[in-house]
Structures are given as C-alpha cells and as structure tokens.
Amino acid sequence: MSVSVRIPTILRTYTGGAAEVNAEGATLRDVLQKLDADFPGIGARILDETGKIRRFVNVYVGDEDVRFADNLDTATPAGAQISIIPAVAGG
Amino acid sequence: MVLATTENTTASPARAGDFGPAVALSCRECGARYDLGPSFACIECFGPLEIAYEFGRVTRAQIAEGPTNIWRYRALLPVPADVTTKPNMAPGWTKLVKADNLARELGIRSLHIKDDSGNPTHSFKDRVVAIAVEAARNFGFHTLSCSSTGNLAGAVTAAAARAGLDACVFIPANLEEAKIVMASVYGGKLVGIEGTYDDVNRFCSELIGDELGDRWGFVNVNLRPYYAEGSKTLAYEIAEQLGWRIPDQVIVPVASGSQLTKIDKGFKELIALGLVEDRPYKIFAAQAEGCSPVSAAYKAGHDVIRPVKPDTIAKSLAIGNPADGPYVLDIARRTGGAVEDVTDAEIVEAIRLLARTEGIFAETAGGVTVGVLRKLVASGVLDPEAETVVLNTGDGLKTLDAVAGQARPTAVIRPSLDAFRTAIA
C-alpha cells in the first residue's frame, strides 16, 4: 500500500528537507519501518526505546489520531495521508 | 549548544533580539539545550522546549517600583528591559479578591479568587500573548497567529492591532458567539475550522511547516516557549498580592495544562530567588467532566494521558489531547494536590454561586475551578483550614449561553405597587 507521509520541520533533516515523502505498508508499524529504512534514524525520533510512539508526538492516519484507532496497528490503506505532528499547547 | 532548527523556513536567526534574562531553550523531557529561536519541540525526543534563564539579582523593592501590569516582573521574563516603551496591551495585576462570603458558604477559613476577567480582553490569555508579541518582534515576524478555543484568538487580534502586526487566527467554527465577535472586532483574519480544537491545532502545526505560514508567529506553536512564560506572572502576582507569600493551596483550570505548569515554575523561581519563604504548597487541577483526560489518568493512577473527544460547555478547556497533561499529573502528585472534574450542571451551579456570593461573573472555566473547589472541600481532599486561591481565568460575558436559561428576571410586571406586591409575595 503506497501512502504519503507529512514530515514535521524538525524531522526534515532526515528527508533532505522534503515535507512529504512516500512509503509502503499495510499498517502504521510497517510504514514507519519502511520510512526508517529509507531515511535511517527517523524511526527512533518517532518511537521511544520500548517501540511505542513517543508521548509528545501525535500521529494521524487521514484525520484520525491513531491513539483513537489501533496505534501502531492502525491500517494504512493505499493513498492514505499520514501526518506526524509535535504536541502543541492550548489556546 | 545545538543550534535549533527553526520552524519557519526563512525565520530570522536565533537570538535575533533582546530576550532579557533568557539564555537558552531547554527540553523538559531530555534536557537538550538549544539557542533561543522560534522552536517549540526537541529534535531528539519531541519534548516541549521551555525557556532557561540566568537571573541577576532581583529584589521586592525593584519589582514594586515597576508598572502595575506584568512588566513589573520583566526581570523574570524573556523580554527586554525596555519592553514598557513599546505599544502593548499591558495586561496583568488583576484583582486578588478576598472571597469571605464564598468561604463562609463552603466552610473554608481563607479564600481568594484571582480574577483575570479584568485583563484587557477579559481573560488570562492577554498575559501570554504579551510575551509572544515581544518574541514575534524579536524574530521579525509580520503576522501573529494562533489556534484557539476563543479567548486566545481575541487576545491575539487585540494585541496584534496594538502592536501594529497583521493577525490571522484559527478557531473551531462552533464557538460561543461572544468569543467569535471578540476575535474579529479587532481586525485581522478569523478562520473557523470545521472540527474540534485538536483539529485546529493539527491544522496550525501543518501550516507552520508550509510556505503559507512563513514568517508567521503562532503564539502557542512556534512561539510557545515564550508565550507560556506569561502564565508565570499569575504566580508572581498571587504571591506579591498576599504580601510576598505563596498560598497553601491553588486551584487551576486545565486545558493544555500549560498554565498550571508555569504557575508551579513561577512559585519555584520566587523561592529560588529568595523573594518568598520556601514552604510547601499544593496545586490542584480542575477539568470539566466532558473533557477530563488528565483527571481520568490521575484517578486511574496512570502517567499516560489517553486523549478524548471533548463534549462540555467549558469550551475554553475543551482540549482532548492536552500537551502538558503529563506534567500536570507530576505537579499535582509532587505537591500533594489532586486532579478533579465537574459536570456541566455543576459548572453552571458554580458560576451562579460565585456570582451570588462575590459579585464575580466567571466564564465556564471559572465555573470549573469553583465547582472543583466545592467538590474537593466536600470530599475532604482540600484542607478547609489552609489558605486557598482559586483562579477565574475569564469573563462570564463571553459564555452567556451557559447560564442564560437559568438567569432570568424574577418577575415581569406592570409598573404598579400592587403588581409588585403580588409578584414578591
């Protein structure tokens, strides 16, 4: 499944400045593995030492926060847009 | 020191201006340090960045000589010493109301309400925005922006108008009418997003990485480390207005949790600088039941906040995925406080209770803190003998709908004494 991943500014050093990249995978876990294979080191910025999504990172598949879905097991259908966003303060 | 990656592609270089005693950005999670810049997240771990300082000698007398607004504490904020010479909204130094009537009704010995409805746009947000305006000036941004539940949007458009900056603010489209009016009357652009506050936040985070948002200062995103420091002034004012003493107990509303963490930081700074006696204090966090992810985590004994989809009349607190939630848990537990929530009905009751006893008309967030105060006293969690301060962060005129159905004329009569006699019988 080919999906697009939007990269936050602080991770664009890994993607050569690209704001959006393509990746493959049936679940978010697969997609992040592929992302890390293509851009070594980026996976460890998104996942902590235990393999979970870091607590100050929000990941969306489409419009849905994956914490409301199946976290890393969330399905990533073909054409889905994945967004990785640092947590921000209130307003 | 690592040079921070700027969030805006063509932003001015780090430390473009004068940030007073601020010396660096520091990650709250891993401690990584960065040069001062328009950055808000740690490159290593995504943790939130906050301001690190090297304070000079600060005395009570020096503060007392300052203006009666937040700039009296400029030696403790990331702003230049001459900040008072530039056009700004000059918020702060709001009333600390001794609430004897409410204290008597609830069976508390000593109670104060820190009433931030007295700020220029009638909420505590004027404090944080004033600091963000200085950062925007320092970084050469031309547009001031934010994601907002309403109060912040009004504070931003007003502050931008006064500072001569463009404004473009983003809110959930279904906000209270008064907040929409306040956010638009000062000029600039007001964009309603179809979705919740968390959706608005996500949109703004993406906009900041796009050329559309280039050279924009989002007060609660890329300027967040500076902006958040404005909440420290609540702690400073409470202590100074009590005669340079930190109260035993404080009740703070929680949306993102940023305000609560900065009140704790403010108290700790006053102690470290020797401006107040070093004694224990408890910080209690208040949420609305319809959006209580931090309270739920506290009660379950968890360290991780599970996001929720908000459904409450307290829209200014309706943040389902609070960025500083884990720190609220840490502070409540460390200080011996607690996290509690109240229903929408209890919020309305509390708004009316505060209005009836003290003549203060709070917005729904103030109803949340007073409602939680009442609940904590009833449950015995809050010590009724200890000196207590409760925050009211905004004006009830902004959330009229919450009480409009229940606050009606006592009677409508012909202008005659007989009719009145009958009506009051």
Q: What is the element string of chain B, with H for helices and E for strands?
A: EEEHEHEHEHEHEHEHHEHEHHEHHEHH
**Termini separation of chain B:** 76 Å
Structural class given helices, strands, pairing of chain A?
alpha+beta
* Number of structural domains of chain A: 1
Average pLDDT level of chain B: 93
Sketch the topology of chain A as an H/E string, one letter per element.
Answer: EEHHEEE
What's the tally of helices of chain B? 15
Largest sheet of chain B: 6 strands, mixed
Number of strands of chain A: 5
In total, the number of domains of chain B comes to 2
CATH topology of the largest domain in chain B: Rossmann fold
Poorly predicted regions of chain B: 2-13
CATH A-level architecture of the largest domain in chain B: 3-Layer(aba) Sandwich
Enumerate the spans of chain A where pLDDT stays under 50 for 5 or more consecutive residues: none
| Beta-strand proportion of chain B | 5-15%
- Radius of gyration of chain B using CA atoms only: 21 Å
Oligomer: heterodimer
Helix content of chain A: 10-25%
Major sheet of chain A: order of its strands?
2-1-5-3-4
What is the CATH topology descriptor of chain A? Answer: Ubiquitin-like (UB roll)
Cofactor (chain B): pyridoxal 5'-phosphate
InterPro entries (chain B): Ser/Thr_Dehydratase (IPR050147), Thr_synthase-like (IPR004450), TrpB-like_PALP (IPR001926), TrpB-like_PALP_sf (IPR036052)
GO biological process, one term (chain B): L-threonine catabolic process
Pfam family, one (chain B): PALP
Notes on the structure:
The complex is a heterodimer of chains A (91) and B (425). Chain A is of the alpha+beta class and 91 residues long. Chain A has one domain: Ubiquitin-like (UB roll). Helices cover 18% and strands 25% of the residues of chain A. Chain A contains two helices and five strands, in the order ββααβββ. The radius of gyration of chain A is 12 Å and the shape is globular. Chain B has two domains: 207 residues, Rossmann fold; 101 residues, 3-Layer(aba) Sandwich (Rossmann fold), CATH 3.40.50.1100. In chain B, helix 10 crosses helix 11. Chain B is globular, with a radius of gyration of 21 Å. By secondary structure, chain B is an alpha/beta fold. In chain B, the strands form three sheets. Chain B has a six-stranded mixed beta sheet, with helices on both faces. At the A-B interface, strand 3 and strand 5 of A face helix 4, helix 6 and helix 7 of B. Chain A: This is Molybdopterin converting factor small subunit. Chain B: Its cofactor is pyridoxal 5'-phosphate.
